[in-house]
Specification:
Length: about 160
């Protein structure tokens, strides 16, 4: 089995596209091709003063969710408006506090044979995920008519490893 494969496939080849965003209170994920979005509260165990951690956690939460609804060997494209998050997912270089989160995501990719690209999107092009994370569901639905919004539970890293 091949563990690492190219991240440089064309974005048009994505099987699933997700927009992620975070603030100090919540996480938002939007799946535009499926007309669904998800909100998650920022967990109590997460470091409360590192917004960058929440941005990366939103990506990990979306990827975790996809293990339940996406076929193996899928190409997943995740957009975020946080350049640091793009960097750690593309380089796998991060501060130690991020290691369990990145390892959890790598385990998901290897186990399912997913190909992942995490790309930057300007904040003005990430309005639906932003509205979801702020619990402004009427705005999110006006920006994406027909949008259905549900709740997600982020994976837990409080013991240094992901827990369910």
């Amino acid at each position: 089995m091949q563990l690492l494969r190219s991240q440089q496939w064309p974005v048009n080849d994505a099987d699933i596209v997700v927009y992620c965003d975070a603030c100090l209170d919540g996480l938002g994920c939007w799946f535009p091709d499926h007309g669904v979005g998800f909100y998650a509260d920022v967990p109590d165990w997460a470091p409360s003063d590192i917004i960058f951690y929440f941005e990366a956690l939103s990506v990990a939460t979306a990827l975790d969710h996809l293990t339940h609804v996406t076929a193996p060997l899928s190409k997943i494209l995740i957009y975020t408006d946080n350049a640091n998050t793009v960097s750690i997912f593309n380089s796998l270089q991060c501060l130690p506090i991020f290691n369990p989160l990145i390892k959890h995501c790598a385990d998901i990719l290897i186990t399912n044979g997913y190909l992942l690209r995490v790309c930057f999107v300007p904040g003005e092009d990430n309005k639906v995920a932003d509205a979801i994370l702020r619990k402004n569901f009427p705005l999110a639905k006006s920006l994406s008519p027909g949008l259905q919004i549900g709740l997600l539970m982020p994976p837990c890293f409080k013991l240094g490893v992901a827990e369910k």
